Amino acid sequence: MKIINKLFKITTLLTLLYTLQLNAQDRDLERAGDIVMLLLPASSYAYTHYQDDKDGRIEYYKSFATNAVVTYGLKYSVDAQRPDRSDNHSFPSAHTSLSFQSAAFLHKRYGLEKAILSYIGATFVGYTRVVSEKHYIGDVIAGAVIGSLSSYFFTSKYENIEYSLDLTSNKRKMVISYVW
């Protein structure tokens, strides 16, 4: 279990380092942000399977769906032109809301230690959206708030408590252990 945790962290860190060393051209950064944006929800969701956390998956579905409805509801009801003038769906940033929804889910469900790399990745995604002129800073901040709140509303702290009863050599004892 510890090995998989370490592999998860190393993979996330290597992905982030790879994206940071890409050429600083806008298109390369935009592509890197797109890749990280896809990896964040995939890794958050995969972690619920790794933890065998069925309740966490249900909470993830709820926060994901809420985030999508609110983000796209605003995106198509607010007429906000993108900085590159490609369309009028700038507010809020869906890339950023999805990224922060995933990071905030990990944070609230499993703790900050499990989410810190995801928060770094989500911040990177927001940065790439501004640099590639797809969003204004306000669009990215709104996306981050919407994504984070959608997870905070629907996600509870993961409580992995194992109970065991040990009856040995005329001693009766109950052992309660907490597994992190």
TrEMBL record:
Entry keyword set: Signal
CDD domains: PAP2_like_5
SUPFAM superfamilies cross-referenced by the UniProt entry: Acid phosphatase/Vanadium-dependent haloperoxidase
Annotated ranges, domain Phosphatidic acid phosphatase type 2/haloperoxidase: 61-155
Annotated InterPro entries: PAP2/HPO, PAP2/HPO_sf
Signal peptide: 1-24
Pfam annotation, one family: PAP2
Protein name: Phosphatase PAP2 family protein
